[in-house]
Write a structure and sequence with these properties.
With 124 residues, this protein is of the alpha+beta class. It is built from five helices and five strands; from the N terminus they run H-H-H-E-E-E-E-H-E-H. The chain has helices at residues 2-9, 16-25, 36-45, 92-96, 114-123; strands at 48-56, 63-71, 76-80, 86-89, 105-111. A hairpin with a 5-residue loop joins strand 3 (76-80) and strand 4. The chain is elongated and about 65 Å long.
């Protein structure tokens, strides 16, 4: 972001629209530069994303994604892959309870890390 702000303030013929477009490309959605404290606040309060994965206990490599969830400080929301079922819970552990668990099959949460999100973006 600093490079984009410098570009906009350098006076080298960069229009405000070009600077706004560069900010959008850098992940900023508005035409105004964001205050660093505001960005810190957003990052600190942003929810985390996860997948609910069902797997065979004896062969954990045999697995499938059952749903995706988003987790904030005081709530967790999960939606099934087909979009037909959803629920809001207090914790990720509670969000796993509706899924079946037996000696053969189990479920777990797999957090979508920044590296996984970047991998998805790069795969297009």
């Amino acid at each position: 972001m600093a490079a984009v702000t410098t570009l906009a303030e350098s006076g080298d013929g960069v229009t405000e629209e070009e600077a706004a477009e560069a900010r959008c490309g850098a992940g900023d959605l508005g035409s105004e530069p964001y205050d660093p404290d505001m960005l810190d606040m957003v990052v600190a309060s942003a929810p985390s994303v996860f997948a609910v994965v069902e797997y065979e206990v004896k062969n954990p490599e045999i697995a499938r994604v059952m749903g995706f969830g988003i987790s904030a400080d005081e709530w967790v929301h999960v939606v099934s892959v087909d979009g037909k079922a959803c629920g809001t819970f207090g914790t990720t552990e509670e969000a796993l309870k509706p899924y079946g668990k037996s000696d053969e099959v189990a479920v777990r949460v797999v957090w979508v890390s920044p590296a996984l999100a970047l991998r998805k973006m790069l795969m297009g």
